[in-house]
Amino acid sequence: MDIKQLFGIDHPILQAPMAGASNPDLVAAVSNAGGLGGLGAAAMPPETLRKQVQAIKQKTNQAFNVNLFAPASEIFDQEARPGEKLRSVLAGYHHEFGLGEIPSPGNLFGPAELQLQVLLDEKVPVISFHFGIERAHVDAIHAAGLKVICTATHVSEATLLERFGVDAVIAQGSEAGGHRGTFLGAYQDALIGTLALVPQIVDAVSIPVIAAGGVMDARGIIACHALGAQAVQLGTAFLGCPESGIPDAWRQSLLASQASQTTVTEAMSGKPARGIRNRYITEVEKLDEPLLPYPLQYAISGALRKQAAETDNPDFMAMWSGQGVGLIQPLSAAELMQKLITDTEKLRKQLASSN
Known about the structure:
Layout: H1 3-7, E1 13-15, H2 24-32, E2 37-40, H3 46-59, E3 64-69, H4 84-97, H5 112-121, E4 126-130, H6 135-143, E5 147-152, H7 155-164, E6 168-172, E7 178-179, H8 194-204, E8 209-212, H9 218-226, E9 231-234, H10 236-239, H11 248-256, E10 262-265, E11 273-276, H12 279-285, H13 296-299, H14 302-310, H15 333-354
Parallel strand pairs: 1-9, 2-3, 3-4, 4-5, 5-6, 6-8, 8-9
Antiparallel strand pairs: 7-11, 10-11
Helix pairs in contact: 2-3, 3-5, 9-15
């Protein structure tokens, strides 16, 4: 099935959900422009999530996507505690900024089962998962008459997702910002660029493929279509929009950064994710000891990151970003969508006339 028909959208452009950076204003703006807006909901308590979904519905009557993290990501050693070196570094940061005691780490996300029930109750048109998916969830979503998609970072993940019955697969190239979606094998083996990954997944599955990673403009969109993708998902491109819910220091860092300033690191959350390198990432990566498991590594810096956001201090934020950051444009979501649509059609015609 054509992906526009599958999702009920006019243009095959998805806004990446980006937990902590997307909000009802951004989601609705993208959906109202004919794309598929996305809300990252993994860190939202169920009732907060319900209110966010209802807020989106008040702003648009178009299709949209809400993203959850797989329940498997909620399984970790809850007794784990930071090593002496990490505790010492964090204590120094807390002393530097007058933050008091280091918080005891705990879970930040889910529970996915309760979150999913909210999405089913609210009839969210498209539900997506990161870090894998459970077949029972696919069945429940389809039973509710809704669509489900999931991220894959290599062919084996994509073929498994197809067997589980997802409606489309997101091929996440290594250029993508934020957390790697790898759920089979080591993430180091799945750092495959979008140019190489997309056609291999297209050849391996019969469901629509959505290309993600490094796509910022019409050139990326056309290239992904040529690789066989039916749609593209953009994240970093939308972080430049005023509707995105990120601190100004993060946005300014994006506007001033190039691809070489991003890195894939486990230092921030305990799972590999691509973001702009800063003081926190650099200093934690130097520690010669194991990190806390995800999401405890993320949780233990919670007070520090909150203070950084409140004071616009980029040194201690989780500033997720893809390698296409050097192409970011500070446009409104509606303006960016219109530019993507117009420029893609223009480029398509130029390429056709040059042959």
